[in-house]
Amino acid sequence: MPHAVVDYSDSLTGAFDRRAFALELHALVVEILDTAVGNCKTRFHRLEESVVGEGTDARAVVVHVELAIARGRTAQTKSRLTRAVLELVERHTAKAAGLEIHASVDVRDLGEAYTKSMTTP
């Protein structure tokens, strides 16, 4: 915890430094949720195809961040995190000249059955 999954349109590949985004995201999550950075995990899914609206504008691309966090955080904390992550997405996609970026963030609680492990062979 927390787990972030970032879906992004293929057109952003050259303009979206995913590693830098993840490292800043982790620092942001640590600050807002008061957790250890070692708990943060981020995965990226490149979308070969995405369609926005009627699909007539090829400049329209998508970035969606889903952040799953431990239960018990207040609505205010989740809202603060959502806004901060959206601002982070906007900063990290600002160099995508000529594209219309449709960014969104969803923060949700991990399920009651969530469990984790870490092994070192």
UniProtKB/TrEMBL annotation:
<protein>
    <submittedName>
        <fullName>Isomerase</fullName>
    </submittedName>
</protein>
<keyword id="KW-0413">Isomerase</keyword>
<dbReference type="Pfam" id="PF02962">
    <property type="entry name" value="CHMI"/>
</dbReference>
<dbReference type="InterPro" id="IPR004220">
    <property type="entry name" value="5-COMe_2-OHmuconate_Isoase"/>
</dbReference>
<dbReference type="InterPro" id="IPR014347">
    <property type="entry name" value="Tautomerase/MIF_sf"/>
</dbReference>
<dbReference type="GO" id="GO:0016853">
    <property type="term" value="F:isomerase activity"/>
</dbReference>
